Amino acid sequence: PAAPMKLRDAPSACPALWRCLPCPPAELRLDLVLTSGQSFRWWESSPGAWTGVLGGRVWTLRQERDRLWYTVYGEEGRDGCPAAAANLDGAEADGILRDYLQLDVSLPALYRAWGAADPLFHKVAKDFPGVRVLRLDPVECLLSFICTSNNHISRITGMIERLCQAFGRRLCCLDGRPLHAFPSLSALTGADAEARLRELGFGYRAKFVSGTARAITEGLGAEGLSQLR
Description:
TATA-Binding Protein; Endonuclease III, domain 1; two-stranded antiparallel sheet; 9 helices
């Protein structure tokens, strides 16, 4: 990675250090991947910049030619502004992002293999470069996709946002927008969790979200579920 730098258009009055990973567009298109309905925690915070919550931290990602730039915000201080950098060294941050985006998997090689096997894929692939599968946190993935039943992306995104605001730990506030971690299992297993979820508009999904959180807690646990990845 290049040395840390400051970018003028960070989505906050509080500057943050930026780092980068080599990543050509053929390997990743953020605008296609982060809006594809895999994760519901990212939004375009400024043109070409995507902000979201990953691993209990707030990140902003930006692509410029063959580089993927990113910054990680620390939790907010007394003034409500996030710290300039999270308590996370560069190598660890690189590893988290590479794992989440599965950057060790060569996408062009897969595209060539799939195109050779499927004429339809070969025809449309040139219009959708850099689309890859995110390696999501298993608990977040499972509970989020319970919310996708009979639903669409914009509504699911709103539900997940309300879920995190109501049950998740507050991380910081960027441009007046409070950001929260995905809820812990314990936060979703309380006696009133299902009723609160119904009040938040989850409908019949409320009992499955709280019930699944309880089943994981009483069964495999979060660590056991992660071992099934």
